[in-house]
Design goal:
single chain, alpha+beta
């Protein structure tokens, strides 16, 4: 097992565990989850919580009455409960992990181009504010490995949705490419979130480390997870 991706910028946060898995620690999207190896990175405790991801901007609050086994239809969730491993699956889309250290609240978001267009990460932070009193000045965000503009060719229908985002649409050799993370960063900074870290690996360029649906047509998915320690 290759060690999961993490960032030095979050090393000082002792109340959370988190990580972005590699190709050695991934799952098949059509098969029963086996997260046992990756879960060793989460203190050997905790309950994985996943979603039925639908490329939406829906974000749920995981509270005491939330059915953690139900695979609810959404693409993001937040919680202030300990020992719940909020887990997103991706194979090109942007996995986003969110932490409010002041209120000890976490979030995890699956942001494909549809979710990015509909500002799902900003929705998650707004729900954290409404539910737990999070203020944007305290929010820390990490964007995990995802497909980048070197590999992510798009057509006119998607181009028109991102033209207003500075530097997110890239023209090269007669084709058009999308840099999703720049659009996400733009929306976050407009919201007032500036503590943003990018784990800058492209899923399309690194088959030795990562899974890419666009490049490999693989059923494998990477995990991106975050948990509050009890």
């Amino acid at each position: 097992m290759k060690n999961p991706f993490r960032s030095d910028t979050w090393n000082h946060f002792s109340k959370i565990a988190y990580g972005f898995s590699t190709v050695d620690d991934c799952c098949s999207d059509s098969q029963k989850e086996d997260m046992s190896s990756f879960m060793l990175e989460f203190d050997g405790v905790g309950e994985p919580v996943l979603l039925q991801q639908i490329h939406s901007n829906i974000v749920l609050n995981v509270n005491e009455s939330f059915n953690t086994k139900a695979l609810m239809k959404a693409d993001g969730f937040i919680t202030n409960l300990p020992d719940l491993i909020l887990t997103i699956k991706t194979a090109d889309c942007v996995p986003v992990l969110i932490y409010d250290p002041a209120n000890n609240v976490i979030g995890a978001v699956h942001s494909g181009w549809r979710g990015t267009k509909d500002q799902i990460t900003s929705n998650a932070i707004s729900l954290m504010n409404k539910t737990y009193g999070t203020i944007v000045e305290n929010v820390e965000v990490i964007m995990g490995p995802a497909i980048k503009s070197c590999c992510y060719e798009i057509q006119d229908d998607v181009v028109s949705l991102f033209n207003h985002y500075p530097d997110s649409v890239v023209l090269r050799n007669g084709s058009t490419y999308l840099e999703q993370k720049k659009a996400i960063r733009y929306d976050l900074e407009n919201l007032g979130v500036y503590k943003i870290t990018d784990i800058d690996f492209c899923t399309g360029c690194r088959p030795d480390l990562l899974c890419s649906w666009r490049k490999q047509k693989t059923e494998k998915r990477l995990y991106s997870s975050i948990m509050l320690r009890s």
